[in-house]
Amino acid sequence: MISSSTKNIVELYKSRLVQQHDKFLQETFASSGAGYQKLYSYHHLINGFAVKLQDHQADTLKSAPGVMLVQKDWRVSKLTTHTPDFLGLPTGVWSQQGGAGNAGDGIVVGIIDTGIDPTHPSFSGQAFASNSSSNTSSGLKNFRGSCEVASFCNGKIVGARHFAAAATASGNFNASVDFDSPLDGDGHGSHTASIAAGNYNVPVTINGYSYGKASGMAPRARIAVYKALYRQFGGFVADVVAAIDKASKRNFRKSFHKLIDGVDVLNLSVGPNSPPSSSSATFLNVFDMAILAAVKQGVFVAQAAGNGGPYPRTIVSFSPWIATVAAGLDDRSYPNYISLGNAKTLPGVGLAPPTPGSSTYSMILAKDAVGNSSNYFFSPNDCQDPSLFNAQLVKGKVLICTFSFSFIFGGATVHQVAATVANLSAVGFVLVVESDLAGSKFEPVPISVPGIVITTSESSEELLRYYNSSTTRAANGKAASFNATAKIGNGQEAVFNSSAPQVALYSSRGPDVRNFAFQDADVLKPNILAPGSLIWGAWTPSGTDEPNFQGKNFALVSGTSMASPHVAGIAALLKKEFPGRSPAVIASAMMTTASTTDNRGSPLLAQHPSSSASSDLESATPFDYGHGAINPKAALDPGLVFDAGYGDYIKFLCAVPGVNATAIFNATRERCSQPAGLMSDLNLPSITISSLGGERRVPRTATSVGAKTEKYRVVVTNPAGVAVSVKPSAFAVDPGRSVSLGILVWARDSSEEFSFGEMRLVGDLGHTVRLPITVLRRQANSSS
């Protein structure tokens, strides 16, 4: 327990900092008569504040005595019934921790997002009802969070706050729409929270159909919610930093710790849209600095890689102290098909029931079913407004609509097509895709009427050819008889594929960049691949993030936002198993045991755009998946780990080209030692060199977390045009001891493209520790 005198010291320190901030602002701007609005005092992780100023006032602030760093605020954006089984949790980590009812118990996962729906069954506190009155009585001795709305705290949810000062100052926040509380008005926050730590075996039912039972990765872990994103406009860094500041631990003195909320794991399915231009390096922006301060306090941080793929340098999570998560497809999909009267069967998607019985039904094209009205907002081909159609013509038929740009940019939805069909008493619908949209991202939408989206231009054209050739028309072109028939299959049944995982088309790709000019960094990003496509999770009925799920309690959503909480939840499981391990060690355990092969044993593949289909598959690289696909069971027993702490990250910052020591001191209050070294010196479980001219020596230190002494041998797969040697090439290491590895990397030729290899440390007790090697060679070694 923390003594009352110690608490008083902390409160006095906090109060003193706030007073200093207020006094400084008053003295700086009082003489000019200019107004300002202080939004936050940051006093846990960093000593600073957020303030609303005019541009000329910001210039005054920069030159004021004692000011080390001024950064302009910028916007950030939001970036599972099967995945626990796909990842092997029930028979792996959950089993080791006593089953799902105990998996992650005592660990708090912080979610910085759009809030939470506390009434959702994924967050029910029933299992914690007997001890939900306080965090200490519920077994959370080191957590001190609270709920600003008391009813949110129920034992499962142990903290709930919202941060909107910057959003309000910007004029974007609307309390009646965005909810001036931790309540989720979007859906995104509830979804990510349920993936990380939602309750076990929660039934997922939509439109009366059961899609199974959902569980979070760490179903017994508690959830602390920090709402800093909003459904209408996203969010602002000042609010997110305030949330990080509140959530993270604070080692104020050696005699006590974890005085602030004290989450163990933090999930950030949020990030900028591009590298921040307000700092000299991507790593030095205030967002990443706040995360570094959290990591210093022992918090493991997972962040979504971004949804800018498959294009290079689209990563929006930059720093080596963050676990950056790419999104993959697991082995479950929801395909559908339509059988035509000419015996052709065309594939598509749609979480929809089949047309009744074994009969085929007449089809009618939307433009052939239009009534007399000429006043409409949407094109009749989009099938958004039933009043535009002749109901008698459409009744009992399959309506053919067009998936146009309106479905991507104009507000048209598959859900509304289904509503149109129901209103007109049609049997079902088929959406054909415009040729310009072939290859777009098509998500199956749960609907209550038979329906299917044809996702390729070839199949769409084939269906229309059949329809036109079978339809009799009068001299004026008006359809006189409808002879084309079809039957729609059952799209509600999941199909399990043999090739998984795959890197999703939209998942952002490396290499990492170190500044706004997109110069490459000696850091591997992304770090790891986790399921992110077609993930069932909790939703709030008032949520608007996905129009097709309005009014629903669950949603099937894709994105790196969904991949990141998978890693956060698995980190919570590892934290429970090994509470003393640092964030870097937990990350290392995940990364060095990740798999670069799919469930057939073939190399991982990545989706890329196709002109004719949803995507093509190509061989994946570390810039697609990082270290590989996460393997929770293997992460429990990695054999060797690569640790790094706060001081190591400061040395890394000091080694970033183009960043002077003053900028680092202003951001961290830490001084650079000489010599600065190289970015690649950081003890990461990977080796990345973005400009190799000649040779480079790369140090690494591996520490044994095994139970017995183990002998390892080094096996290297050289990247193309690169040679790698490692000393020692074989070694034995006792439990808890470390070994220093000297790695020499030299270029044999030059290239404009990165090449990829790996170093494996193969132990005689069954451990294999894998370090990816990523090199861009600028010139050949003259001595080679």
UniProtKB/TrEMBL annotation:
GO terms for molecular function: serine-type endopeptidase activity. SUPFAM superfamilies: Protease propeptides/inhibitors, Subtilisin-like. It holds the Pfam family Peptidase_S8. Residues 597-618 are annotated as: Disordered. Keywords: Glycoprotein, Hydrolase, Protease, Serine protease, Signal. Residues 104-606 form the Peptidase S8/S53 domain. Belongs to the peptidase S8 family. The active site is at D113 (charge relay system), H188 (charge relay system), S561 (charge relay system). It is found in: Secreted. The keyword rRNA processing does not apply. InterPro entries: Peptidase_S8/S53_dom, Peptidase_S8/S53_dom_sf, Peptidase_S8_Asp-AS, Peptidase_S8_Ser-AS, Peptidase_S8_subtilisin-rel, Peptidases_S8_3, S8pro/Inhibitor_I9, S8pro/Inhibitor_I9_sf. GO terms for cellular component: extracellular region. Residues 14-76 form the Inhibitor I9 domain. Residues 681-775 form the Subtilisin-like protease fibronectin type-III domain. One of its GO terms (biological process) is proteolysis. The keyword Protease applies. It comes from the Eukaryota. This is Peptidase S8/S53 domain-containing protein.
